[in-house]
UniProtKB/TrEMBL annotation:
This is NitT/TauT family transport system permease protein. The lineage of its organism: Bacteria, Bacillati, Bacillota, Negativicutes, Selenomonadales. Its main location: membrane. Belongs to the binding-protein-dependent transport system permease family. The keyword Cell membrane applies. InterPro entries: MetI-like, MetI-like_sf. It comes from Dendrosporobacter quercicolus. It is found in: Cell membrane.
Length: 283
């Protein structure tokens, strides 16, 4: 009996050792991956810095990162960059909020719980969502002019469809067993929709909001290149026309950083508000 106990104990020790070795191996792999990524970025920036200064590529078209950083600092210290960022963000926010206010209720109606409305509106909305938004620039400018309204309308248009489509998908993909269980417990009518169906569709809805947010910001940059006198898109367009290449790269870097920041902010918000999704997934 004692021999069996010793054998079992040695087996457990062996298993623990193997698990520790695997865990250590995973940590080393993760650290190696992080180091490799950092080194690759450093080598890329070093080559980028060297190529224009050594004359391998003309500085007329490619500015070294040090000069771009210097230009970016100048734009920040002068306050010019923040003025254009504020203008672009306000336009994006207004268009995004309008799209959310209309897109979520519309997606809820199209989710299959109102068959007549879905049957009438679905073909029309599919046709409209298939239209390339860039081809609608002249139409929006013709209808709303070249002022702020046309830019907000463009943002609203491109944000509307991710919100509508993902909301509809979320409603339609609610587990039928969940609905049956709620009904068996006496949850019916509007309570069923509010307490069960809508919360269950929130992950899809948030995915639509996250996509719409990214699309809104980058679409605005294109909109500001047409008939605008402020905003990050106008700043890029103006720098291009005046051959201010460092300013062009600095603004482009700012646009990319803001886009990634907005995407990360929505991801953080989704994890905070929908932490129950991860908990239920463990079961």
């Amino acid at each position: 009996m004692e021999a069996l106990f010793k054998k079992a104990s040695s087996g457990n020790v062996g298993e623990n050792t193997v698990r520790q070795q695997r865990a250590a191996g995973n940590v080393i792999k993760q650290l190696a991956g992080i180091v490799f990524d950092r080194v690759a970025i450093i080598i890329f920036l070093a080559l980028w810095e060297l190529a224009p200064r050594a004359g391998w590529v003309p500085q007329t078209f490619i500015s070294p990162p040090s000069l771009i950083l210097e230009t970016l600092v100048d734009l920040i210290l002068s306050g010019v960059l923040f003025v254009h960022i504020k203008t672009s963000l306000l336009r994006s926010v207004f268009g995004f909020i309008l799209a959310v206010m209309i897109g979520i209720p519309l997606g809820l109606f199209l989710g299959g719980w109102f068959p007549l409305f879905e049957r009438v509106m679905n073909p029309v909305l599919r046709l409209l969502s298939a239209i390339n938004p860039f081809s609608l620039f002249p139409v929006f400018i013709l209808i709303f002019g070249i002022g702020e309204v046309s830019k907000v309308a463009m943002i609203f248009w491109v944000c509307l469809w991710p919100v509508v489509i993902n909301t509809t998908t979320g409603i339609q993909s609610v587990d039928g067993l969940l609905i049956k269980s709620a009904r068996s417990m006496g949850v019916v009518g509007s309570n069923l929709f509010i307490k069960v169906i809508f919360p269950a569709s929130l992950p899809n809805i948030f995915h639509g909001l996250r996509t719409a947010c990214s699309v809104a910001f980058f679409m605005l940059i294109a909109a500001e290149m047409v008939g605008a006198s402020s905003g990050l898109g106008w700043l890029v367009f103006n720098a291009q026309n005046n051959y201010q290449i460092p300013k062009l790269f600095a603004t482009t870097f700012t646009i990319a950083a803001l886009g990634l920041s907005l995407n990360g902010l929505f991801g953080l918000l989704e994890r905070r508000l929908l932490n129950w999704k991860e908990t239920t997934a463990d079961y």
